[in-house]
From TrEMBL:
Gene3D superfamilies xref list: 2.60.40.1910, 3.30.2010.30, Neutral Protease Domain 2, tricorn interacting facor f3 domain
InterPro entries: Aminopeptidase_N-like_N (IPR045357), Aminopeptidase_N-like_N_sf (IPR042097), ERAP1-like_C_dom (IPR024571), M1_APN-typ (IPR034016), Peptidase_M1 (IPR001930), Peptidase_M1_aminopeptidases (IPR050344), Peptidase_M1_dom (IPR014782), Peptidase_M4/M1_CTD_sf (IPR027268)
GO cellular component: cytoplasm; extracellular space; plasma membrane; side of membrane
Assembly and oligomerization: Homodimer; disulfide-linked.
Cofactor(s), names only, from the UniProt record: Zn(2+)
Main location: membrane
Enzyme class: hydrolase
Species this protein is from: Diabrotica balteata (Banded cucumber beetle)
Residue stretches making up the Aminopeptidase N-like N-terminal domain: 71-253
Annotated binding of Zn(2+), by residue: E329
UniProt-recorded name of the protein: glutamyl aminopeptidase
Keyword ATP-binding: no
Family note: Belongs to the peptidase M1 family.
Amino acid sequence: MLWYMIFMLKHNILACVFLIIYTVVALGLSTTILSIENKSLRLTIRRLKMEKNNCDNKDNLVKFRLPDTVKPLLYDLYLYPDLKTGLFRGKVNISLEILKETESVSLHSKGLNIANVKVASQPGTFTIEKTYDLLNIKRKDNSKFIPGFDNVEIEFDGDMKNRIVGLYTSSYTTSSGEKRQIATSKFEPTFARQAYPCFDEPNLKAKYKVHLLKPKDSSYIALSNYPVENVTDYDNDHQLVTFDETVSMSTYLSCFIVSDFTHTETSFNNSGKVVPLKVFASPENLDKTRYAGEVGKKVIEYYVQYFQMPYPLPKLVTMNWWNDLWLNEGFASYIEYKGVLAAEPTWGMLEQFIITDLHPVLSLDAKLSSHPIVKHVVTPDQITEIFDIISYNKGASILRMLEATVGEEVFQNGVKNYLNRYAFGNAVTKDLLTELQLLVGNKFDVTEMMDTFTLQMGYPILDVAISGDTYTLTQKRFLKDPNASYNVNETKFKYRWSVPVTYVTNLGKSSEFILFKYNDNQVTIKKPAGATWLKFNTDQIGYYRVNYPLDEWKNIINNYTLFSTGDKTHLLEETFMIAEANQLSYTIPLELTKKLKRRNRLYTMECSCIQYKRHS
């Protein structure tokens, strides 16, 4: 089985001058009152916005979400793209199950012309109502659809031009100047509805039987999720390519392409079975596919071993709704580094993760404009907005922290059990955490720890106080703007976190983490006997910051060359960011940069350059 892996008039001037003078005087007389009132006003506005959003979301549930009365079972989908005109037409036969008595069958459709609708159970005339992105099929006699199995056939057509989502045309130019057209698709998150009428929500999975029209020219191919079953002549100029029936999957995972691409081929070991792996490209870029194939082979074989499942994964698990997008994309963003590490062990991929994924999101998440990873979304625009650095990078970063906290083997087994338990189904964040909790036992509350990072935006900074060999840690929310104000009661955790604290000394790494729970005022740690220095957050594995007394910072600087690459990049990035927040003198990060030598790895030098650029 093969899967194919692409925002004045003078009197007005006088009035402004008077207003400025008046404001300055007023501010001089009542700065404190205005400060309090402004803060109160900001909090009131924020609260009103939240209340409005709640009302809007309830209204949007009706406008954009599908009712729970019908579920699809199989899409028998015919698509006929015309590369010359940029138009397409199609037909879809949807086998479905009516779960509850209902006045209409509702599904998604956007930008499509609906030519004809048939319902197998009761042939007759139907009315079509379009509301926002919903297509509501009703009987003219107002009779209801009763529970049972049924089939809906819809004929439609649309435009592929001047767009980059749904089913669309793209092109490339050959070295001889010839422009070549292709048809391709992008359906994530809510764009499948622009290619064919469907139940375009991630929890409504169905099987697919796909038929694609392509030019009869032998240089053209058609690709979809599964291998080709057969090719038949359609007319004098076209062929119809039929693909094997797929497993149940969400609409956004379906994909189609008609192009004149060619390929190189290799194979990989799929739990003892040899499976072909093809990499496609335009003919002039074919030579670039060989390395991609070599890496792809190694990465897939690593994933087969890691998940202990054959590829393609027969146990496809998707989030129940887009609120939990981070679990899909965050996991993919993290595990991809492990895959490349398996293919190219000398590239230091886990060190690269710190600079390319962790550091950018730590900067963004230290602003009031951030948002929680788990965010309630309803409309297509709201859904698209959460495909951002928070879902991807923060998601990956807290999963990395979770893996280090529970242990790599426990994490791997928990993921494997999660995939098996929810095979072909949908899951939410809590489901994965429950699987991990079963393996962790009573050691700590996995869900509680992760909820503090997923249900509220931002992250903490741990302030260190030292008395002899005793280190006392307290926590607060870290913000780049030292004057930023917010309401701690916005979240149930009051912007406090359950932090898995790790540390490293000249004697080695701590064998266990210390959980600094969100409802604890402080936590104390004794420096091991014989240790001359102590640095918290080993290899920046945790999603938090640490600030030390000045003397301890100097001690760390003096021992900088002894740290691992991960700790070196951590200290460089962290000192600059804490200094930017006006909680540390810039002399500390600047002193650290003096410690850089030629023998330092590229990632450390890159981190230093990035910080200089950000703060210059």
